[in-house]
Design a protein that fits this description.
By secondary structure, the chain is α/β, with parallel strands linked by helices. It contains eight helices and seven strands; from the N terminus they run αβαβαββαβαβαβαα.
Length: about 240
């Protein structure tokens, strides 16, 4: 039987190189700029959805109308800054009375930025962008989308479930799209003990833009939008 030995890669255990150190400073700069520019943008709703949705389609119209109503209700609206649902979200918020925020990301295939942004930030690192979505949100609203949207949805659910962010509304829009996923979560995750049945109560489903706004307003009318001291500590350690 052959003997196997772990071979350390070249440079393993050596000091951080100047290039790696410079990269760390770049990451810190992204966090600093986002924190500084968004510190007064409250209350804010982070909105997720597909970049592939075309203007004029059902999902685009739903996102645009929802964002406009949120904006008029006093919420800043944060999107990924790109096309599709992100553009619809920024457009609706921009045309409302609130602030439209775009968290743009550099991708191998250039992601065009929406022009409907009062505040525009650009990230090189997905994880810094994801922290920004979570850190500045008082709610998450999720429209139909693909891998990226599902990633953001389950990130939000995990943060709320584990207490790594404060309790807040997570709303899925357009029940027919989410029906199969929720059924699988109930039949597999709950039934096989991967999550508790109460974990399905961490999110709500809406079909109408006005119902999204009503649910958010009802939630915060009962407790206020300002985080408690304990919640501020949680957000500080996010």
């Amino acid at each position: 039987m052959a003997n196997h030995k772990l071979v350390k890669p070249a440079g393993f255990g050596q000091e951080i190189s100047p290039r790696e150190a410079w990269k760390l400073f770049g990451i810190m700069a992204e966090f600093f700029e986002a924190t500084e520019r968004l510190k007064n943008v409250q209350p804010a709703v982070s909105v997720f959805g597909s970049a592939r949705v075309r203007p004029g389609t059902l999902y685009y119209r739903l996102a645009e109308e929802t964002a406009r109503l949120l904006s008029d209700a006093g919420f800043a609206v944060i999107s990924g800054g790109g096309p599709g649902i992100m553009e619809a979200t920024n457009k609706g918020a921009f045309e409302g009375t609130g602030i439209a925020v775009g968290l743009n990301i550099d991708l191998p295939r250039e992601q065009p930025s929406s022009r409907y942004q009062n505040i525009s930030l650009r990230f090189k690192h997905f994880f810094a962008r994801k922290v920004t979505f979570a850190k500045h949100a008082t709610a998450f609203v999720v429209f139909p989308g693909g891998y990226g949207t599902l990633d953001e949805l389950f990130e939000a659910l995990t943060l709320v479930q584990t207490g790594k962010t404060r309790q807040m509304p997570i709303i899925l829009v357009h029940e027919p799209f989410w029906r199969g996923l929720i059924g699988w979560m109930r039949e597999r995750l709950v039934e096989e003990g991967m999550i508790d049945g109460t974990d399905l109560e961490l999110f709500q489903i809406c079909d109408e833009p006005r119902h999204v706004v009503e649910k958010l307003c009802d939630f915060y009318e009962q407790r206020g939008v300002e985080p408690s001291p304990a919640e501020q500590e949680v957000l500080l350690n996010l």
